[in-house]
Amino acid sequence: RGSLYFLRHYQGVLTRLDAASGEQRTGPFRLHGLRDIYASPVAANGKIFITDRDGVTIVFSHADDEATDVPRMLSANQLDDQVNASLALAGRQVFIRGERFLYCIEEE
């Protein structure tokens, strides 16, 4: 949808850039509820997924309205595992590589 997202080094701060111009659209945004993020943000289906080392994944909206162009938290999910890798998306499946297990989550 024309945006690039990245995190500042382990600080839990999300920045959104316009993909064509490289200009910052809005933000940056502090991500509350996440700490020690090693994984890169992943976007699909109008959502941004960010996972921290404690196994918490927060799902944000991808806001298209320039006036209120702020990602909104949609859900938070906790695994009982440590996660250092970015999520992998394939079709309707999300793969999460934890320290102990590989998780596959699929929408019904």
Tell me the major beta sheet.
Answer: 4 strands, antiparallel
Structural class: mainly beta
Spell the H/E element sequence: EEEEEEEEEE
If you compute it from the alpha carbons, what radius of gyration comes out, rounded to the nearest whole angstrom?
Answer: 14 Å
The best one-word shape is globular
- Strand fraction band? 35-45%
Q: Which parts are unreliable, with pLDDT below 50 for 5 consecutive residues or more?
A: none
Overall number of strands: 10
Q: In terms of quaternary structure, what is this?
A: single chain
Overall pLDDT score = 84
Biggest β-sheet: strands ordered side by side in the sheet: 4-5-6-7
State the helix count.
0
Q: What's the helical proportion of residues? A: under 10%
* Spatial gap, N to C terminus: 24 Å
In brief:
This protein is mainly β. It contains no helices and ten strands.
Question: What's the helix and strand layout?
Answer:
Layout: E1 3-7, E2 13-18, E3 29-30, E4 42-44, E5 47-51, E6 56-61, E7 73-78, E8 88-90, E9 93-97, E10 102-106
Antiparallel strand pairs: 1-2, 2-3, 4-5, 5-6, 6-7, 8-9, 9-10
What does it look like?
There is one protein chain. The mean pLDDT is 84. The protein is mainly β and 108 residues long. The protein is built from no helices and ten strands. The two termini are 24 Å apart. Helices cover 0% and strands 43% of the residues. The strands form three sheets. A four-stranded antiparallel beta sheet has the order 4-5-6-7, with no helix packed on it.
